[in-house]
Amino acid sequence: MRVALLDDHALMREGLAALLESAVSGLTCLQCGTLEALLNMLNSDAAPALVLLDLGLPDVQGIEALQRVRELDAAVPVIVVSADERTETVLACLEAGAAGFIPKTANFEQLLARLSGALQGRIQLPSHLGLQLGAVPSAPTFSGRQQEVLQLLLAGLSNKVMCRQLQMSESTLKTHLAVIFRKLGVSRRAEAMVVAMSLGLRMRLGAQAPESGAAAATAQPG
């Protein structure tokens, strides 16, 4: 499995790459110091199955980096790794298509544990994220089609891309999303991600995911 690690601090980038590759069998970290380098990589044969993206880059700042990655490659999951863990920043990233958010303020062991969890498909979000949600429901059941939609939702895909991948109309997709949101007790994407994390739902990272069983294709609690 190839993972792109985008961070302009070489020491942080190289240290995380070495730790992740030693901790996860079969993992290759592709390192980028600029958004331009990542965009070129996404256009190549060495495109990653997952992107770990820092928001503070020398050639683009903030959420624009995430938006540009999603515009170029709408399918690859992108997890933001940033020191800016304000609630508004995290929610903006989720609404813009991030598949998770890992704060850099964690110590190195905690950061490694969160990154390793992300590589296993586990939803990663800051524990302090302050959304006023109702009681989290017990693990709901989804139809086969709803599971397909949920997987793409957890990966951060836009409605347009989900329609294209699932070959369904926008109205049909919105109907599925409405049912999924109702079963999760939420009304928007960011809330769905928070509940998905609390329920232990996992996202699919592709056929080349590590053979841990945790990153397998499933929308069931794990």
Fold and architecture overview:
The chain is an alpha/beta fold and 222 residues long. The chain contains 9 helices and 5 strands, in the order E-H-E-H-E-H-E-H-E-H-H-H-H-H. The protein has a 5-stranded parallel sheet with strand order 2-1-3-4-5, sandwiched between helices. Helix 4 links the parallel strand 4 and strand 5. Helix 2 packs parallel to helix 3. The chain starts with a strand and ends in a 23-residue tail after the last helix.
Order of strands across the widest beta sheet? 2-1-3-4-5
* DSSP helical segment count: 9
Radius of gyration: 16 Å
The share of residues in extended strands comes to: 5-15%
Class based on secondary structure composition and strand pairing: alpha/beta
Q: Profile the largest sheet.
A: 5 strands, parallel
DSSP summary, beta strand count: 5
Helical residues, percent:
40-55%
Low-pLDDT residue intervals, each spanning 5 or more residues = 207-222
Order of helices and strands: EHEHEHEHEHHHHH
Average pLDDT rating? 82
- Net shape: globular
Distance between the termini: 21 Å
Sum this structure up briefly:
The chain is α/β, with parallel strands linked by helices. It contains nine helices and five strands; from the N terminus they run βαβαβαβαβααααα.
